[in-house]
Design a protein that fits this description.
The chain is of the alpha+beta class. The chain folds into five domains: about 20-85 and about 365-425, no CATH class; about 95-245 and about 260-290 and about 340-355, Dipeptide-binding Protein, Domain 3 (Dipeptide-binding Protein, domain 3); about 450-625, Alpha-Beta Complex (Dipeptide-binding Protein, domain 1), CATH 3.90.76; about 655-770, Macroglobulin (MG2) domain (Immunoglobulin-like), CATH 2.60.40; about 770-845, Immunoglobulin-like (Sandwich), CATH 2.60.40. Helix content is about 20%, strand content about 30%. The chain contains 21 helices and 46 strands. It has a six-stranded mixed beta sheet with strand order 5-16-4-15-9-10. Strands 3-20-2-29-28 form a five-stranded mixed beta sheet, with helices on both faces. It has a five-stranded antiparallel beta sheet with strand order 23-25-27-26-24. A hairpin with a 4-residue loop joins strand 28 (about 630-635) and strand 29 (about 640-645). Helix 5 packs antiparallel against helix 7 (about 205-220). The radius of gyration is 38 Å and the shape is globular. The N and C termini lie far apart (about 100 Å).
C-alpha cells in the first residue's frame, strides 16, 4: 500500500471521516435518518461461512447482503470495484492483544509480561495491518476516548507508554524472572533448569491476531527464545482458555465498604492440572463507557471476564472507584488515569491494536442500511438498526435479508458467560432491554426509552421496605445519597408466546442475570451492581405491575447503564436453576423444544419440578420480546433463521397502510395465529407430530383501536368479530375522522393451552378527503370553446378538449382555489365552494389586448445634400492651392 495514502487514510479515520463509497449512497442511512421502529423484512437469516473469503465471495455475488466480520484490505479494494456493493470503514471499539494466565508461572510474573511487551513491534505490525487496524498499545484508544468523540479525556495524554520494541530490553526483563536463565553458549533459555518455551494460543481464524502471534514469535527468535504457537478458534478457545479459567475459582474477590477487596480464592491444584494455558491472543469489543476495565481486571470478575484471573489490590481499588464511586466526570477521569498507570506497570494484557470496521453491503434491490459510527451497518448496534430499517428498494416491506456470521455461536442463550459478538448479533434481535442507545448516540452515551419510560432521581435518601411489592434480599433499611430509577413498561409489550410482559419480568431478570451477585449464575453481567454501592432493592407497586423502582445506594455515572439488561421471561425461566442454566462451562440449549433439550432435568430448579403442559408446546425456549422471533438453528449447516415479530410493540406500522375516503366504512381484517411445536404422536390442528407450525386462535376477543400517532389518543375502538379459522374482522367508520394518517392497533386476548395470552398487532389507515369530479367549460368572450386551456383545482390539473371541456377528478370538498390559463387569454383565478353536488362550471376568458403598433421609423438621411457640400469643399481647397502656387 502507498504509505502516503495510508497515513492520509488514518488521519481521516481519526477525525471521524470516511472514504467515499464506490456506489451511490441512497441505500445507506445516516444516524439521524435511522428509524427506531421496525422491522420491515419478513425473514432474517444468519449464515455461518467456513471462511471469511467464502463469505466475501457470497457477498459480492449477491447471495448474501452483509458480512458481520471486517474485510481485509484486498477484499476492500475488490468491493470498491464491484458494482452493487457499498463499502466503507470506521474506527471501532474493538481491540486485540495478548492476555496472560496469572495463575500459571512464569506468565504470572510481571517481568515476563514486560518482556513480551518489549517484543511487540508496532511499526512492523502497522505495515501488516494497513487500513485494517491501528497498531498501538493503549488500553484507551486515544481518538475514541478523547474529545470530540468522548466528553472528556479518558485517555491520559500525559502518560507515556513505558515499553518499546527492543529484544535487548526483553532479554533483560526475562532474566529478572526468578527461575529463568539463559545459556549464551548453547543459546538456550531454561526455567528451573529445564528448557523453556512459552506457549501462545492464537486465533488462527483471525488474520490480525495471527500476524501478532507470528511477529511476536519472530522477535523472540532474535534472543533465541522459542515461543510455541498453538492455533485455536473461537469455539476451541472456550474449552482451552475460558472454561478452565472459570472452573478454578473458588470465590471471586469481594469489594468492601472502603473499596478494598478481599482477595479471590483459587483451586491451585486444579489450576495446575487443567488451567495450564500461558498466553492467548484475546479480542474484545467494548463501548464508549470507559468503565470496562472493571470487568477485565477486577477480581470480582475472576474466572468470568477476568479470565486471566489477574489480581492486584490497587487495580481492584481504582477500577472499583471508576465503576462504583464515580459520581462525576472529574472523579471518573481520575480513576481512569490511575487505572492506566497501574495497567502499564502490571500488564495483565499487552494491547496490540484497535480495529477499523471495514464493511461492505450488497445493496442491489435493498435500502435502509444503518451506517453508524464505530460499528457500521453490519455488527452490533449498527446491525440491530439495519435489521429494523432495511427493506426491498421496490417495496415498503418484505423480503429475506441474509448476514454472514464469522463463526458459529457457542450458545444463543443470552445468559451464556462468554458472549461472542456473533452470538450477541443474533440474540439481540430476540431480546430487548428497557432503555436503548439511539443511532445517533453510540459515542456519547445518549439513551432513549425503549420498553418504557424512565426517570432518575439523584441524591436521594429514602427508606426501603419489606412489605408487599418489595424485593429486598439484603434486608436494607434505606439508601443514603443514592438514586431511585423508575421504569414504566409499556402495556402493549408482550412476550413472543403472547404472555404479557411487565415489571415483574424485569425484576426477575435482574436476579437471573445475577447483577447483584445473588444467584451464583455465571452471566456476562454477574456482580455488575452488587452492594454496598449497587442495587439494594426494588419496589413494584401492588396496583401497578408495569412500574418498578430501583433503589441504588450510589449516584455514580454508570448506574442507568449497569441496570439496563435484556429482559427474559419469568413465566419460563422461573422453573430453572440460574446457576446451572447460566454456568461458567455452558448454558442450557434454549433453541430447542422443551422435550428435546439434552439433560433437561439437570437444569430444573429442583429434581421434582413439574413443568406446565403449555411449555411443551413452545417451538423453543428462545422466547423474547424483540423485533424478531427465533425459528431454528441448523447446527449442521449453521444457518440460523429469525422471522419478523408481528406483535412487536415498536412496530413500523406505517409500512402496512390502507387508504379509505372520509365518510366511508373501512373494512379491517386480522389473522390471530399461534406458533406451536407438536409434542404429541398425532397431528394437532394441522401440525404434524414433532413439527412446528401455526394454529388458528378462535376464542379471541378484542378490538381494533384507531390511534392518533402524535398524541397516542384513541379516537375509535371497534369490536372484532370472528369469521372462523383465526380470522377476525371489524368495520371502522371514518365519518368522524379528519383526513390524515392513523395507527391501527389490534388489542385482543385469548386462552391457549391453559395460559392467558394477548395479541397486539399494528398497521395504518390513511383517511383521504372525500372528493368529487368537477367539469369546467372554458369559452372566449364571444362564446367560442377554448381548446388547450389548463384548469387547476387544489393541485389537480386537466386540459380542455376541442369543445372547451376539462374534467378535473379528485377535488376535495370545501373551498378550493381555481386557476384557468390559456395562450392569448387573460388568466382566471377564483375560489370554488366544492360540495357533493358540484358538477359543471363555466368560465369565460377575455382575450389579451393586442400590443400597440411600433413607432414609425425615423426618416432616411438625405445623402444628396452631403454630396453637394463635400464637392464645394473640395473645389475651395483646389482654388486655394492654385493661388498659393502662383504667389511663388
Amino acid at each position: 500500500m502507498n504509505t502516503k495514502y495510508l497515513y492520509l487514510f488514518m488521519a481521516l479515520i481519526a477525525l471521524g471521516f470516511s472514504v467515499s463509497p464506490a456506489v451511490a449512497q441512497s441505500p445507506m442511512l445516516a444516524p439521524t435518518q435511522v428509524h427506531t421502529h421496525g422491522p420491515l423484512i419478513n425473514t432474517l437469516i444468519f449464515n455461518v461461512y467456513t471462511s471469511d473469503q467464502n463469505a466475501f465471495l457470497a457477498l459480492i455475488s449477491g447471495q448474501i447482503q452483509a458480512m458481520e466480520w471486517t474485510l481485509t484490505p484486498s477484499m476492500y479494494i475488490t468491493a470498491q470495484a464491484t458494482s452493487n456493493v457499498y463499502t466503507n470503514l470506521t474506527l471501532s471499539y474493538a481491540f486485540d492483544g495478548i492476555a496472560f494466565n496469572c495463575l500459571m508461572y512464569p506468565y504470572s510474573n510481571v517481568h515476563f509480561r514486560r518482556a513480551i511487551a518489549d517484543l511487540v513491534d508496532y511499526s512492523y505490525l502497522q505495515s501488516l495491518y494497513g487500513i485494517e487496524a491501528v497498531a498501538e498499545p493503549y488500553i484507551y484508544e486515544p481518538t475514541l476516548f478523547s474529545p470530540p468523540y468522548a466528553s472528556t479525556y479518558w485517555y491520559d495524554p500525559q502518560l507515556p507508554y513505558p515499553y518499546k520494541y527492543s529484544p535487548t530490553n526483553a532479554m533483560q526483563e526475562l532474566l529478572k524472572v526468578p527461575g529463568i536463565s539463559y545459556n549464551s553458549v548453547k543459546g538456550q533459555w531454561t526455567l528451573y533448569g529445564k528448557p523453556f518455551s512459552p506457549v501462545l494460543y492464537y486465533r488462527s481464524d483471525d488474520p490480525l491476531r495471527t500476524d501478532l502471534a507470528e511477529q511476536l514469535a519472530s522477535a523472540a527468535k532474535q534472543i533465541n527464545l522459542t515461543i510455541t504457537l498453538k492455533p485455536v478458534t473461537g469455539i476451541t478457545a472456550s474449552s482451552i482458555i475460558y472454561s478452565p479459567a472459570a472452573s478454578v475459582v473458588i470465590a471471586p474477590g469481594t469489594m468492601l465498604a472502603n473499596f478494598s477487596t478481599t482477595p479471590p480464592q483459587f483451586n491451585m491444584t486444579l489450576a495446575n492440572q487443567t488451567d495450564t494455558w500461558g498466553m492467548y491472543t484475546f479480542g474484545w469489543i467494548v463501548s464508549w463507557e470507559p468503565n470496562y476495565p472493571w470487568f477485565f481486571f477486577n477480581s470480582q470478575l475472576a474466572g468470568i471476564v477476568d479470565f486471566g484471573n489477574f489480581f492486584n489490590e490497587s487495580m481492584d481499588y481504582w477500577t472499583d472507584i471508576l465503576y462504583w464511586a464515580a459520581t462525576n466526570i472529574s472523579r471518573a477521569q481520575q480513576a481512569a488515569w490511575m487505572f492506566q498507570k497501574i495497567f502499564y506497570q502490571q500488564l495483565p494484557y499487552v494491547v496490540a491494536l484497535w480495529s477499523n470496521e471495514i464493511y461492505a453491503d450488497y445493496v442491489k434491490g435493498w435500502t435502509g442500511f444503518a451506517q453508524l459510527p464505530t460499528t457500521g451497518p453490519n455488527e452490533e448496534t449498527g446491525l440491530y438498526y439495519t435489521s429494523l430499517n432495511v427493506h426491498p428498494s421496490n417495496a415498503p416491506y418484505g423480503g429475506t435479508f441474509t448476514e454472514a456470521l464469522h463463526s458459529a455461536p457457542t450458545s444463543l442463550n443470552p445468559l451464556y458467560v462468554t458472549n461472542w459478538v456473533w452470538q450477541v448479533d443474533v440474540w439481540q434481535e430476540v431480546y430487548d432491554s428497557p432503555i436503548g442507545t439511539p443511532p445517533w448516540g453510540l459515542t456519547n452515551g445518549s439513551l432513549i426509552p425503549w420498553m418504557g419510560t424512565y426517570n432518575v432521581q439523584t441524591d436521594v435518601t429514602a427508606p426501603i421496605g419489606n412489605g408487599p411489592g418489595w424485593w429486598n434480599p439484603f434486608n436494607a433499611s434505606k439508601i443514603v445519597n443514592g438514586e431511585i430509577i423508575t421504569i414504566n413498561f409499556w402495556k402493549n409489550d408482550t412476550w413472543q408466546d403472547g404472555v404479557p410482559l411487565n415489571a415483574y419480568d424485569y425484576n426477575f431478570s435482574l436476579y437471573y442475570w445475577n447483577v447483584q451477585g445473588l444467584s451464583g449464575a455465571s452471566t456476562p453481567d454477574s456482580y455488575a451492581s452488587t452492594p454496598p454501592y449497587g442495587l439494594l432493592a426494588t419496589y413494584i407497586p401492588p396496583n401497578n405491575p408495569y412500574e418498578i423502582q430501583l433503589y441504588v445506594n450510589s449516584t455514580n455515572l454508570w448506574n442507568i447503564y449497569t441496570l439496563d439488561i435484556p429482559v427474559i421471561p419469568m413465566h419460563i425461566f422461573k422453573y430453572f436453576n440460574p446457576s446451572v442454566t447460566a454456568s461458567s462451562t455452558g448454558a442450557m440449549d434454549t433453541t430447542l423444544p422443551l422435550s428435546q433439550i439434552p439433560g433437561l432435568s439437570s437444569y430444573l430448579l429442583s429434581p421434582n419440578e413439574q413443568l406446565p403442559e403449555w411449555m411443551y408446546w413452545l417451538p423453543n425456549l428462545e422466547v423474547g420480546s424483540g423485533p424478531f422471533v427465533f425459528q431454528s438453528w441448523n447446527k449442521v449447516t449453521n444457518v440460523i433463521t429469525l422471522t419478523r415479530n408481528p406483535n412487536y410493540y415498536r412496530s413500523a406500522w406505517w409500512a402496512w397502510m390502507t387508504t379509505e375516503p372520509q365518510g366511508t366504512s373501512a373494512p379491517f381484517k386480522v389473522n390471530i395465529m399461534e406458533e406451536i411445536y407438536n409434542p404429541t404422536s398425532s397431528t394437532f390442528e394441522g401440525v404434524a407430530p414433532g413439527s412446528t407450525g401455526y394454529i388458528p386462535i378462535t376464542n379471541a376477543t378484542g378490538v381494533v383501536e384507531v390511534i392518533n400517532p402524535a398524541s397516542g389518543q384513541v379516537y375509535e375502538s371497534e369490536p372484532l368479530t370472528s369469521v372462523g379459522n383465526g380470522s377476525y374482522t371489524a368495520t371502522i367508520p371514518t365519518s368522524n375522522l379528519a383526513p390524515g394518517t392513523y395507527e391501527l392497533m389490534v388489542n385482543a386476548s385469548y386462552t391457549s393451552f391453559g395460559l392467558n395470552r394477548v395479541w397486539y398487532s399494528y398497521s395504518g389507515l390513511t383517511v383521504s378527503p372525500l372528493t368529487v369530479t368537477v367539469t369546467y367549460k372554458v369559452v372566449s368572450s364571444t362564446g367560442v370553446p377554448i381548446s388547450g386551456a389548463t384548469v387547476k383545482i387544489d393541485g389537480e390539473t386537466a386540459i380542455t378538449n376541442s369543445s372547451g371541456i376539462a374534467v378535473v377528478p379528485n377535488v376535495p370538498l370545501g373551498t378550493q382555489n381555481v386557476t384557468v390559463t390559456a395562450p392569448g387569454y387573460q388568466n382566471y383565478t377564483a375560489t370554488l365552494p366544492v360540495s357533493s353536488t358540484t358538477t359543471v362550471q363555466s368560465v369565460t376568458l377575455s382575450s389579451v389586448a393586442p400590443p400597440p403598433p411600433p413607432p414609425p421609423p425615423p426618416p432616411a438621411p438625405n445623402y444628396t445634400v452631403y454630396y453637394v457640400v463635400a464637392a464645394i469643399i473640395i473645389i475651395i481647397v483646389i482654388i486655394v492651392a492654385v493661388l498659393a502656387l502662383r504667389r511663388k
